[in-house]
Design goal:
Layout (H helix, E strand, L loop, with lengths): L1 E11 L13 E11 L3 E14 L4 E3 L6 H13 L6 E4 L1 H23 L2
Antiparallel strand pairs: 1-2, 2-3, 3-4, 3-5
Bound molecules: zinc ion.
Length: 115
């Protein structure tokens, strides 16, 4: 099984970076966790957010956030809509289900006609 964090939304923030004090490097990224196995693919409801400064290449952890960053973050988080959680079966899964169904049907047929 593989799990992947996929970027859903990126927002450039105009706030000062707490590390390098630049004003055009901060980027807020929303990611959502996707799972994939041999049988299905699913979108989970797990999301993560991260602020990174593209100027000094530093991840700005919440402990370093200024009040301004926090305010902008809260606003952006409210505006963010994650993808709906869902699960899609792959072909292999459908084949297995079909095969299983056939087995049951033939089992019933057999039981009915060859009693
Ligand atoms: Zn920076």
């Amino acid at each position: 099984m593989s799990e992947k964090l996929i970027t859903i939304k990126e927002v450039n923030l105009n706030n000062n970076c707490p590390e390098c004090y630049g004003t055009n490097g901060l980027q807020l990224t929303f990611k959502q966790k996707f799972k994939e196995t041999n049988l299905y693919k699913s979108i989970t409801n797990e999301t993560t957010q991260e602020i990174e400064c593209k100027t000094c290449n530093t991840i700005i952890y919440p402990v370093m956030w200024t009040e301004d960053i926090e305010r902008v973050f809260n606003y952006q988080q409210k505006a963010f809509t994650p993808k709906k959680p869902s699960t899609k079966l792959k072909k292999t899964a459908w084949l297995l289900i079909a095969l299983f169904g056939l087995l049951i049907i033939s089992g019933i047929t057999f039981a009915v006609f060859y009693k």
